[in-house]
Design brief:
By secondary structure, the chain is α/β, with parallel strands linked by helices. The chain has helices at residues 19-29, 45-51, 56-63, 68-75, 81-90, 94-118, 122-131, 136-143, 162-175, 183-186, 194-205, 221-237, 273-282, 336-347; strands at 151-156, 180-181, 206-213, 242-246, 262-263. The protein has a five-stranded parallel sheet. It holds the Pfam family TIR_2.
């Protein structure tokens, strides 16, 4: 058995590497190297993928992703920290070994210490990660025999809008005591199917999806898919799922023009944006109280397009313009006349 003080790195799985270590590896390995090793091995992520045993087709698929090194590390199920270091040596990338040695050692010690304290074997932990453990909080809750973490909202934003997203995270968690889920901060490293994990979090573990709309946000097909997916969930379950925030004015896709939006540009003494956002996240869904009175939705969707939500609030208004900003109680609510049309639109986009 590997010692916590002097760990056998060949017994430490790649799942032990934290996100900062993985990012450091990506920084070194993602840039393509022209000169190969004396054995003809490419000295970047492609050489790592080759020696890890991935097929040429898989390597090509990884190369189409923004961070191919992360793809290699997440899908290399039989890899270990020791084997990773050995391969980096074969690739003549001792610069990476030297730069990341302390980080890997630190990750390995933490992993083995946690394993020793919980008494969980690596195969058992891996099986749980594949099924239910999606976030870092889940790992610690698993060790304490608790259910996976639930969140008030999943925060979806473009990378270019990260500074504003961090403001939302800080205000909502520090001042209002909410718990948000962010992809880069909360998801565990090494998830094979990140999109599927995010969908499961949005559908089962996050009460809301906060959407930060901007021109950069709409450039991402993945972001637009998650919004469409959450919108379909909200319609089928008759609850408010999406909390839309207009950060920078942009031309919204058709499925998003049905919402009332919180306008960040109006923030000030006369428009308390942060309180409105908190109330939109924390308040009960407009439709939850009337769900028991609604007929069941058939599996083939015959009734899903004919059902009209019963208005609970006096000012549940139909949206006719591209976007509107209203009080927190109205933000994210759908106009009853438009709900069937939107249900038809999103149902055709969310079949997977």
């Amino acid at each position: 058995m590997a010692s916590v003080v002097d760990p056998d790195m060949f017994q430490v799985p790649l799942a032990a590497l934290c996100n900062s270590t993985r990012e450091a590896l990506s920084t070194h390995l993602n840039p393509l190297k022209v000169l190969p090793t004396d054995e003809g091995l490419l000295r970047d992520w492609r050489g790592l993928a080759q020696l890890a045993g991935f097929s040429g087709q898989m390597v090509a698929l990884m190369g189409s992703k923004p961070d191919p090194t992360a793809q290699v590390l997440s899908q290399w199920r039989q890899g270990s920290v020791g084997l990773l270091r050995s391969i980096l040596g074969q690739l003549d990338r001792w610069d990476i070994v030297n730069d990341t040695q302390n980080m890997m050692d630190h990750d390995a010690v933490l992993f083995l210490k946690r394993k020793e304290e919980t008494g969980a074997s690596a195969p058992e932990l891996d099986a749980d990660v594949d099924k239910e453990i999606l976030t870092i909080a889940d790992v610690y809750r698993l060790e304490q025999g608790m259910e996976p973490q639930r969140y008030d909202a999943f925060l979806l934003f473009a990378d270019e809008d990260q500074d504003f997203a961090m403001q939302i995270m800080d205000r909502m968690e520090t001042e209002y005591g909410l718990k948000l889920c962010l992809r880069d901060r909360d998801l565990v490293g090494g998830l094979t199917f990140e999109h599927e994990a995010i969908m499961r979090l949005i559908a089962r573990r996050c009460n809301r999806l906060i959407v930060i709309a901007s021109p950069n946000f709409l450039k991402s097909e993945a972001n637009k898919f998650f919004v469409t997916f959450a919108t379909a969930l909200g319609i089928d379950q008759r609850l408010r799922k999406v909390v839309p925030v207009m950060y920078q004015r942009c031309q919204l896709p058709p499925e998003l023009t049905y919402y009332f939006w919180l306008d960040y540009s109006r923030a000030g003494k006369l428009y308390d944006f942060w309180t409105k956002l908190h109330n939109s996240i924390h308040s009960p869904s407009n439709m939850q109280s009337s769900r028991t009175n609604l007929p069941a939705i058939k599996a083939n969707g015959e009734e899903s397009c004919s059902l009209k939500p019963q208005p609970v609030l006096e000012h549940n208004t139909v949206i006719s313009s591209n976007w509107k900003d209203e009080d927190p109680a109205d933000s994210c609510s759908l106009g009853s006349e438009n709900s069937s049309t939107l249900s038809q639109n999103v149902s055709s986009q969310c079949i997977f």
